Each structure stands twice: as C-alpha cells, then as structure tokens.
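Hey everyone, long-time lurker, first post.

I ran two proteins through the pipeline my lab uses and got sequence/structure pairs for each. Pasting them in order. The first:
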Amino acid sequence: MLVKTSAPFHPCTRMYCRSCSRTSVSAGPRSSSATSISSNAKKPLFQELHSHLSSKVEEASVALKHAPQRFLEALTDSIFKFTDQALHLSESNFAPVDEIREAIEIHQIEGAIPDDFPEGVYIRNGSNPLFGALHSTVSIFGQSSEIWVEGEGMLHALYFTKNSPTTWSVTYGNRYVQSETFKLEKARQKPCFLPAIQGDSAAIIAAYIFNYLRFGKVNKDISNTNVFEHAGRMYSIAENHLPHEICIENLKTGSIWDIGGEWDRPFTAHPKVPPGSGELVIFGADATKPFLVIGVVSADGTHLKHRVDLKLDRCTLCHDIGVTQKYNIIMDIPLTIDINRLIRGGQLIELENDSYARIGVMPRYGDAESVIWFNVEPFCMFHLVNCFEDGDEVVVRGLRSPDSLIPGPGPALHNGNTEKSELTGYDKSLKQGTKEEFLSRLYEWRLNLKTKAVSGEYLTGTEFSLEFPMINNQYTGLRHSYAFTQIVDSLTSSSNNFEKVNPKYGGFAKLCLDKRNNTEEHVSESDLITTEYHWLGRDEFCSGAAFVPRVGGSHEDDGWIISFVHNEKTSISEVHIIDARRFEDAPVAKIILPQRVPYGFHGTFILRNPMK
C-alpha cells in the first residue's frame, strides 16, 4: 500500500468524521474532550501505518527469501550460454514433433490387419526434446552437451479395436511424459537444466552444482526409454529416475511409482517378470553408494518383497537385468559412472577396457553374499536377450560389443560407403559398415553353478550389427528357440568435422537359436546360428519393434513383429506388421500415420483386456 497526501488521508478530516460519528454532545471539561478526541483520531492513522509497514516487511521477507534463487538464476544466465545441437540432413527424423493429444482415426492401410491380431495398444517411448533440439552449453568452465539418449520422453501409441470379426478401428495419438522437470521447463519456456553427462570435466561439475542448488537434483527426469506394464498399470521409465504411471487410454501422466514409498532411488528401464511368479525384478544403479540395489516387487504392485544392496565397489552402467526361474542375473561390466574420475579431469561415463567384467547369479531373494560371481572377458552390453537354467548351468544370452556407444560422440564408426544399397524387394541384403569395436553380436555364456566354470561363444557373425532384442515374453526366463532384433544401418553423422552418434536401423533379424550353419570360415569354436532377415525399403528405418504373440498360438514364433517405420525421402511414417513365421515376406499390413513419428527407443504391445 502507498501512503497518499490527498484529502482523504488528511488528519483533520479523519478526526472530525470519526469524532462526529462517535459523539454528538460534549460531556465534561473542554480540555478533557480535546484530549479524548485527539487520542481517538490517532488510532486509524497508526493502524494504517502499521498495516502499510507490515505489508512492506512481508514483501521484503518474500524478496529476501527468493533472492538467493534469483541470484542463482541470474548468475547461471550470465555464465552459461545454451546452444542447439544442429541435425545433419541424414538426421531429419530425429527432430522432435508437436503433441497432438487427441487421438486421430486412421483410414489408410495397405494390406490387411490379420483377423486374429489381438486388440490392444502398441506404444513406444523415445526422445522428443522440448525446445526443438538437444542442447549444449558453453561457459568459463568449458562445454557440456546432452547426449543422444537424452531429450524429454514422448509416447506414441496406436490403438487397435475390433468393430466386427473382420473390421478394425485404428487410432494414433502421442503425448509428452510430464515429469516434474518437464513441467518446470515448460512453465519457464526455456531449457533450464545444464547438461551434466558429457563434456569438459569442469563444465560437468559446474552443471552438477548449479542444477542441484537451483532444483535439488543434478539431472532432468526424462522418462524416455521404455514402457512396461505391471499389475494392470502402465509406466514410462528412464533409468535415472522413478517410473511415471501413464493412463493407457489418453497417455496422460500420473504420479511417480515409488512402490508405496519403499523405493527411493533410480529404477531400471528393463524390469523383468520371472516365470510363473507375476513378481517384478528391478534394480537401481547410482553414482554414489550403494551403487547397485536389487528389488523384487509383489505381483499386485503394492509393496516391495525384497531389497538388497549388492555392495559393489563401482557404479556399473548396467542397463538390463536377467531372470530365470530361480535366479536374478547381474551384469557387472566395466562401463562405469565415476565421479572421482570426473573430478580428476576424466569423463563421467567411460568404458574401462583394462578393468574387469563378471556375471552374477543371485537367488531370487538372496543377499550380497549369496551371489555367485563368474569372471569373464571385459565387454560392453546394453541389452540381454534372455536367460534360463539348463541342468547345472545358467545360460545368459545378450548383444555384446567391444566398445560403448554411450556417451558419444565418438570416433568415426563408418567403414566405407554409408549409403544404403538399392533395394527393390524384401530379399535384398544390406551391407553396412560398422567398425568392429562397435559391432554388436549375439553372445552366449554358460555358467556352471556346480564347477564354477565359464564357457562362451558368439552365435552371430560380423556381417551385421544387432540391437534392441525382443522375444516372445511368455518365454522370459525359460529356454527359448527364437529372438528378434533390429539391424543397425548407420551409427554416426558428420558435420563441420564433428561426429556424433545417432543410430538408425534398416531392417530386422530373426535368430533361430536351435539351428546352426557354418557361414564363416574363421569361426572355429562352433557353427553360427541360422538367421533370417526382413529388410526395409531404401530410405526406410525402424524403431521400437515389439513381438506380438498370437493368442492361442501353438509355436513360440507364432505372432507378429510390429514396428514404427519412417521413410526419409517421403517423410511418411508408418507402422508395419510382419508375420514372424513368414519373416522374409512383405509386411501383412502397413498403417500410414497422420504425422511424422521420430525415431525412438523401446516399444511394447499391451493387450486391451488386462489393462486398467
């Protein structure tokens, strides 16, 4: 309130009015009356002054309370300059798209959706940077950059509903995962979190400090990696934070899932359901102790049945966990997150090739001392294919590479011509040129629990690099005969002598695990498995593929591969449905989408009936 010197505030006017309103006859001596009137007239003035001063004190208190925050924001703005990471022409479909929120009905379908295809939702997660691009910052501390797996999560969903035994209704929708950090930056209409993974060590440390002082955390909750279902509920997840519950019908973001307050740390992007239990095996890796904690969630999702610190002496960036009927499978690989290394001037995330690697076999509800560790040759791996028990042995299958694509950017990954060959049919092979150190191949370890011996072999050759594996989830933790992957087409782009990682996938592989054929002379230990290929057309690339089992199917591979596919020449995005038993044939259906869908990460198919 401001004090005005206009007539309404004049003391005489105030005293006169109030005295007139309170008394009409003067009783007693004149001097006494004057004193009484003077005293009464001062009260409103003092009250107004007190109110004004109180208001100003309150405003000053609020200003002082927020002064450190304002100072920090001003200091951050003056020190750090955000810049957009430019996309090469070959990376056009990594650019983000707008939300459409309301589902759009699809009318253009080439081929036909099979009559026995199940009703449900095909949903895929992926990076969709909020302000048009991934960002870097430049400051007095140096440069730091967001890496290719960052960017706010956006869900893309295709809804399959049967109108009659032979007709389908298909709709498409997308929506951001609205984490707390997403809502914070959205409200401010600018990027706020400083990149804190890759770059100059001083810049990353500064980003850690400034992010924590301003927001109470060092990184954004991007929730962009995977989607999974448990106890009839769907969740979006990235392994740096807790899952967010998602409404399957409209993709709205609900609350975070901390398992009734019992889980207070990061949450794996690849939780597993052991055979027959309905429980969910999870883990959380962190850069500070405890480095790795394993958990088992109840089948109804209401509580944590088991939690144990494995007491590792390093933070390993293990992206996946395996399960068998009785065991949890732990991958302790030398791709590490090390704050002390960062302080010494090194990188936060680094593959330590001169360090050790081991695989742990842990009883489902065991403790740290119960884990049987098997030392193996150092390697890098992000995704397991499956694990199962075979007599005294535990079999572990995963996609192994000598080096890591995270964090990136890295050295040139191309070897020779990076253009796709001209494809005129679905039986054409695609020769891509990934350097050997980044070649991801199917590998099998056999861990003998009785003798503690380890044996291992590659099951696929060096012709193609494989990633994003999937199986019929009914065989998770059990012996299986088939697996499917996406095939890496290209890994990097170059612009102004700067190379960065942005993988693209030009087809699919079907791995026939029980069939062997010797296709390469230099493979002496054993024959390689038989592999079938489904190639996409020229300029077409896929993401988020999932296996959809046929309801009541009599074979493990009885079902379909469903995947988002984008044509970079026409800028048209589609969803392809491929018969897994006639894998090399053309898709049985191509669903043309109403807008471009950027490349993303993991997808899944959720049956409609069990959903809540």
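...and the second, right after it:
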Amino acid sequence: MASQSSPNTYTLPTSLQHTPSEPHSSGTRKSWRHRLNLLSSHTPSLDQASQNELRQTNTNASARSKHVPKWWKIRLFRGMINDVRRRLPFYWSDWVDAWDYRVVPATVYMYFANILPALAFSLDMFTKTNMSYGVNEVLLASVLGSVVFAVFAAQPLVIVGVTGPITVFNYTVYDIMAPTGTNYFAFMALIGLWSLVMHWFLAFTNACNALKYVTRFSCDIFGFYVAFIYLQKGIQVLTRQGSDEAFYLSITVALLVLFIGYLCGLIGTSPLFQHYIRVFLTDYGTPLTVIFFTGFVHIGKMREVSLSTLPTSKAFFPTTDRGWFIHFWDVSIGDVFIAIPFAILLTILFYFDHNVSSLIAQGTEFPLRKPAGFHWDIFLLGLTTGVAGLLGIPAPNGLIPQAPFHTASLCVTKVVADPNEEGANKGHVTTITSHVVEQRFSNLAQGLLTLGTMTGPLLIVLHLIPQGVLAGLFFVMGVQALEGNGITLKILFLLKDKSLTPASEPLKRIPRRLAIWVFVAIQLLGFGATFAITQTIAAVGFPIFILLLVPVRTFLLPKWFSDEELRVLDAPTASPFTMISVGGNFGESFEDVAGGGQGSGEETVVQSSGSDGMLVGRGGEEGDSDEGMAERGEGPGLGGSGGAKRRESWRGEGRSGRWDGKERRGESFEMQSGMGIRRRSVSRQST
C-alpha cells in the first residue's frame, strides 16, 4: 500500500469500520482499498483546477442526495434558534454601523412618516369606537413596537406601528361586541392574549417557512389595498368636516398638502437642482409640508374659519377614564371562547401583514448584507400583541409603506455610467444604490421621539394640526404607495403607446399581451374582494381573503400562464439571501438556497463554483465570505476588503413557481475579496 495518498484517493467516512486486510497473494482477491490505491498510483496527476472541479462536483452530488424530511415532521424551535444564531454575530455592528449621516434624516423622516399616519388613524378610531382609542394609545403602541423590534428583532429595519388594517379590525370588533354589553377593552385584551399564544405556536413550529410561496403577486395586491385604505381614510376625514366654510377649506388644504408633498418627492428623483437640495426635499419635504399648512390656515380670513383639529388628552394618560392595565377577567366565560375566532383572524392578519412588510422592506432592490430572521420576529410580534392587549392599546405590526420607506431612506447612492446599452439613457449617467446602512438606532430613535410626543407641550402642538392636513397626509401616503406598486406599473404599461415603449421594458418580452391583461385583472379582483369585505360588518374576515391569494398564485395561475410569462409578470419579494431563514423562494432547487427544502433546519455555506452554478456545502475555500458566515451564523465580517456585495436581477425576470427542466439564470452575486472579483450564477432546475 502506498505510503502517501494521491489527491485522487477516495476514502470512506470514518464512521464505517473495516478490518485491515492481510497481505494477498497474486491469486487471491485484492481488497477494495488496495485496488483503489493501485489505480491512483497509475493515474496521471490532475492539475489543481481539475481537482477543485472534481471536489465541487462530488460535493454538489452529495448535497442533492441529502435526505429532505417530510413536511409534517416539524423541528420545534429550529427556525427561531437559527434566526438568532445567524443574526446575533451582527448585533454589535448593528449599533456601530449607525455612525453614518444617513441615520439622521432616516430617523427624522420615519418619525414623521410613522407618527402622522398614526395620528390620523387615532382620529379614525376615536370617532368609531366612542373615544376608546385616542392619540396616547396610538403613540404608546408605536413606542412599544419600535423599542422591542429595534432592540431585539432579527430584522430591525422593519418599522412597526399602528396600521390601517388593525384600525379596521378594532372598530369592527367594537361594532360587533359593544351592542352586547361586553367590556370592550377586556375583550380586546383576551383577543391579544389568545393571539400571543397563536403567534408563539407559529414561531415554535417554523410556520414562517410558508413565506417561500409569497411573491410579488400577493404583496402587490395587499399593498394596493393598504394604499386605498389610506385614500379612503382621507376622504372619510373630510366628510366629517361639515358642509360650510370649514368643509371647503379642509378640502383645499388637503389637496394642497397632497400636491406639495408629492411634488417634493418628485423633485427628489428628478435632475432638477443640486443633489443636496434633492436629498433634502426627499427627506424632509413631507413633514415640512405638514408644519407649513398647520400655520397656513391661520393666515388672513382663514383664521376666522373654525377648523376641527386633532383631539388629544392628558399627557401619558389614556383617553378614557381608566388605568393602563386592563382587567381582562372582567368578562363572562363565554366571551373568553368567543374571543378565539377573533384572535385567529388577528393572527392571520399579522402573520401576513407583518411578514409582507418585512419582505418588502428587505426587497430585491435593496443590497442588504445582513441576514433576516422571520421566525424570531413573529415570536416578538406575539409578545407585543399580548402586551398591547393588556395595556388597552392597538396592537402594532409591520407598516406598509413605512417599512420599505425606512430601508430606502438608509440607502447610500452613487452616480455611475448607465449600464443599459440599449436603453434611452445610453451614454448617460444613472444613480444606483451602493449599500444600505443596516443598523438599529434609527428605529429606536424614532420610537423614543414618539414617546417624547406624549408629553404635555408636544400634545398641545399636535392639537393644533387641522384634520384637513391629516387628510392630505393620508392622500400623500396613499399616492406614494400606489406609485411604486406592481399593479400600477403594469396598468401604466398597458396604457402606453407601443411604439413609444422602450425595448428594454421587461413586459415587452411577453408575446401574449392578453396575459398581462388577465394577470392584472386577477390582481384587481383580489383587491376588490378584500376591499369590499372591509366595508361590511364582516370586515374582520378580510385576512382570510388576503391569505387565499398565496395558494391562488402558487397552484392556479401556473395552469393558464406559461413559465416565461410568470417569470416576467411576477417575481420573488426578497432575494435568496434574505429568504434563507425560511428555506428560500418557492421553486428553487437545492443548489439555489442554503438549506434547500429543510427551511431553517440547515446551516450551510453558499460558495462560488466558477461559472457552472452554485455549490452548496458546509465548508470550503470560500466559506469565509460574508454571506457564507451569515448563513452559518459565525460572524459579521462586513468590514475590510472581504466585504460581500450583492447584485440582484430578479425584478426584470420574475419567476413562475414551476420549472420545465431548463436551466435559468436567476440571480447574480459579485463576491469581492482579496483575490479579486468572482462571479457566480444561480441555475434553477426542475425539482
């Protein structure tokens, strides 16, 4: 037997025991070990590149043959543990990285973007729940969500607060239970406690792995619904202003707020003025507009018009005469069980709403470099939901569109040459996002500022804001949410002149224009059903309609649309790097995402394998990349020349959710290290 093994020597795992072979004569049967070594001694030595290729091929084959457990075999707590393990090494850098200028405007912007709609929602609930909820309750809910998620969450970029859907849920429960004489706050506390148990059950059983089926199809519908909720609330605020001078002045002010606020955002993305002016208008345009028109209504004869303002209460006290702790036992035994179906609906709503907010806030357009953690965050969401019920405040959850706005406000951009050689901007320059300042401070700071707003002097200032200005703010938020929505963009494409549509438009690659019309019609139908039910007494059931959008996309749409059409019409909400927490996006092969079909149960390294695909393994020469370390939960490694930069190309392609066996290039990464730049591609194969 050779004293030194060749690089091509094959050995079995050490766990297999073999009896050493005795020396054999020429006529006896040689052992497998002797023959393998003999073969290796006669085989010419391979160069290093061939050895690497052989090693990668064998590792890939081994990864593909790994046993995938059945879906019903639940590994309790596995998702939460892996989320914490992946994110915890980055915790210190989440605070250190806050030393960046972008954190300052992001904090100010999110303070106003969070508090102003919350104040408008407080006005809505104040009116429809007989003053049960007011400004202080909504502000405290925002503080609770901000502090908990900024300090403890695995996804600290997600802004948590009071949303339009929870507003609809709260006053619908009031309309159902108040006529029965049930203690409303005690009943809402029971709903919160039951929902806490259900959230924790979802977190313990890794239920967030189902997010792999959520694509832009359902996210766009839900975002479209939220945008129209904003617009509807703005109109409802105006209709409560009477029919005299106050009504017409409120309409005028609301439209002016919409025009000026939207114009500031428009200038921020235009080539007008200098760069610092555009950035200033983008960051501070909306809050300055609200401040200006709050004083504008006191100019000239307008001061003689009596306008309704935002109702406020005593500093740090509830709106009604009660304490901050709810006596949830002051209900009948029957009400304890009646609260269960309401809690189920609330849990469905938060499961979808919060996770969609997290997905959009970590969308493919943002070059994020730190791992996500959906299972751990749904556990925290259950905690805040239960605490909110005990305090008698609206339960906070992820905000749309504030959550993606927060990430966008933390983007650091640079001007580069336009890479689109076939586009209309050939030879011109364009602005791209170089990186995102991923940290926890801006979320925490805006929450603490919100807490300061509950003080007496600031409540007096809030009381000066006319309701017409809040209506205009609703309009601004709604229009901004509609502007970037996928449904809106598809409708605008269909309305464009074909001859004037750029050839680089991805939707032009679809040969059947009817497919676009049908896809948009299905989305509008889903939106219409969700919006219609919220206008009835059955509004608490609208989370069911939202949840049904996911199986419609996964199982029904592929029966009529082709793979190529769905790849353009739809797209994954977040990149595979973000979706590692839930096992990757639906339709990916094992090589596409670490952990393959096992959700959060596997901790693997995604390595570069040249241009032939992606290698999934547990180690290797490039296992110390930032993304690899993030997936293993071993350390940040974000600084220095070893940083990982990601380049996404999902948005222009989309994906279908079923594969025809052909390899398709879905996402490209650029891994920068001391050895230079290597490129790897994700090849999707049929499974």
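Reply from user beta_strand_b:
Welcome! Quick read of the second one: Strands lie at 160-161, 397-398, 411-417, 429-436, 605-608, 614-617, 644-647, 664-673, 676-684. The first helix runs from residue 32 to 42.
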